[in-house]
Amino acid sequence: MKDAQEGSGVSPVTAHLRLIATTDLHVHLLPYDYYADRPRPATGLAQAAHLIRALRDEASGACLLLDNGDFLEGSLLSELIAAERRAVSGGASHPMIAAMNALGFDAGTLGNHEFDRGFPYLRAVMAEAAFPLVSANLRAGDGPPLADPWTLLPREVQGSDGQIHDLRIGILGLGPPQTATWNALTLDGRIETQDIVAAAREEVPRLREAGADLVVALCHSGIGGARPLPGMENAALPLAAVPGVDALVLGHTHLVFPDPSWPASGGIDPQRGTLHGRPAVQPGAFGSHVGVIDLWLRKDAGGAWTVAAHAVRAIPVPPTTPVDHRVAASVASAHQRLLDLARRPIGRTEVPLQSYFSLVAPCAALAVVADAKREEARRLLQGRPEADLPIICTVTPFKAGGRAGPRNYIDIPPGPLALRQAADLYIHPNTFCLLEIRGDALRGWLERSAALFRTLVPGQPDQPLLDPDVPSYNFDVLDGLTWDFDLTRPPRTTPDGRLRDPGASRVRNLCHDGRPVRDSDRFVLATSSYRLGLGGGFLAVRQARLILRTRISNRDIVLAHVRSAPLRPANRPGWGFVPVPGATAWFDSSPGAEGLAARDRTVEPLDATADGFLRFRMNL
Questions:
Q1: Which of 151, 195, 276, 525 is most buried, most CB within 10 Å of its CB?
Q2: What is the pTM of this model?
Q3: Looking at the predicted structure, is the pLDDT value of residue 6 above 50?
Q4: Class of domain 15-337 (CATH, top level)
Q5: Can you list the alpha helix ranges (DSSP code H) found in 69-195?
């Protein structure tokens, strides 16, 4: 049916609004890799800022710059800034906030990592922002409100009739409710969380009643299942179906959307960039991409605005993009201080520590982390009844290529070990936890890890080995046990950790100290606060009993171990694959791994890939 304007022969008024978005910056301000001590082009807000200013200049109508969370924590630079702010009260603004203020962000939301250092730190930093930060479902449980659930941004747009029209854009903030468990210690239980979809259903009508012509959801959550489940971590798809949401900015999983590599499925159009027909963008992480949603709006005779058309892009930042000098200036001093600190030697390694093959074989770099955890576990268990139980350590190949590219590996040669290199062994701020766990739960833990691998067919050559939907940080090795994965069997869980087939089993020959592990055997498991909070879908933690939850970061445990003596992790039996007769499989790693393959008869290099990796064949 035509509206009143069309029926009366009057053309409807149209206008253009551009939304520009960043997400998961994690205090990456300059295009520099502090762990490797070398430039890292196409990362950092300073390079993305140049593209953002160009996108603003070319916009034909009103323009908003929005951030979707995890801007405050998650890098070596954030560690330095936090340490200096604790040491000196007051002083200069947080470099990340100073950069965002300089670039003129219009609004942002809080991701889960904003809460890593507790409420006082977060409140102090938020007070420095010259733009509103909103959060509808992550709230302070006591004291003054942390943030408003939403904000209204009034803008003037030029209509097709040549007149200036008022437009009120509602910005709604949402984040993963798991934040409460992931940061349980730092927040002391003083956080209230709500399901993402439930919060949106409550707040969107309130935004509309307050006068919002459009509602944009800043959703620090990725694209998961279509069916809304209570407490979903990645709830973007059911959120897009909530009435009254006009556009979405996504994040948290560090992926890019729209992207042709996304599988089209019910509600997801990876070509047009829509979820249930609503425009949605996810611009990667660390400033690798800038998200753009162009909205062409239509105003009816009653004055209501609707989205008549849209275009969505996640634009990669070209490596040669100039650095924005105003953004760079905000971090120049902290950058130099961090370089000086990161280059200081703190220990020595007698063996090379590399993660090139950490997804397909035992790895010396992970063994160092396990040794550090085991030493700390023994110290903490002294005098406790669990002290006589065998200690198993979860170790995770955080840097194993994947979404972050072919340079995302640990590669430490023998010799002096600088702080930056030691920190590279454990890059996340998770804290140290000890659990009592039985053999059947450890088996379930490994079944979750086994989702990393594709199902292989005997007799078939060159099959893909790794499932690209499973990031390496969701693959745990249990140091202290030995086992084999049978890849002819299907995985028990989906890539995101949901139970697919409770009867499926890939774990074979699970042993401790050469003896088969029985379901009733008891162990101590040294793990992280992230796993304790069900991070990564390791639901076997529910079968464990908490012994100790500490405030000690796993990284600090590793650094103390590095300082204590030269590193030479003992050779130990580990894990492998059940032979698959007549089958070979391929996986991608860094070109730097070619030399390792020459010493390993089970692996041979093939060809370089279009995205800079080197492909390897594994003989199974």
A1: 525
A2: 0.91
A3: no
A4: alpha beta
A5: 76-87, 95-103, 119-126, 179-182, 184-187
Q: Hey, is 21 helix, strand or coil?
A: strand
- Residue carrying the six token digits 């969107």: 204
Place of tokens 């009254």: 244
Return the domain boundaries, the chain: 15-337, 348-619
- Give dist(CA 593, CA 83) in Å, integer: 36
**pLDDT for residue 8 is more than 50:** no
Average pLDDT, stretch 303-307?
Answer: 93
In tens, the pLDDT along 488-544 reads 999 999 998 889 999 999 999 999 999 999 999 999 999 999 999 888 899 999 999
Contact 160, 15 (CB under 8 A): yes
Nearest of 465, 453, 462 to residue 504 by alpha carbon: 453
Q: Are 137 and 194 within 8 A, CB to CB? A: yes
Note the pLDDT of residue 302. Answer: 85
CATH H-level superfamily of 348-619:
5'-Nucleotidase, C-terminal domain (3.90.780.10)
DSSP per residue, 327-392: HHHHHHHHHHHHHHHHTSEEEEESS-EE-TTTTTS--HHHHHHHHHHHHHHHHHHTTSGGGGSPEE
Return the axis-axis angle of helices 325-342 and 95-103, rounded to nearest 10°: 160
Euclidean distance between CA atoms 275 and 282, whole angstroms: 12
Contact between 61 and 157 under an 8 Å Cβ cutoff? The reply is: yes
326's enclosing H/E stretch is helix 325-342
- Pairing state between β 247-250 and 256-257: unpaired
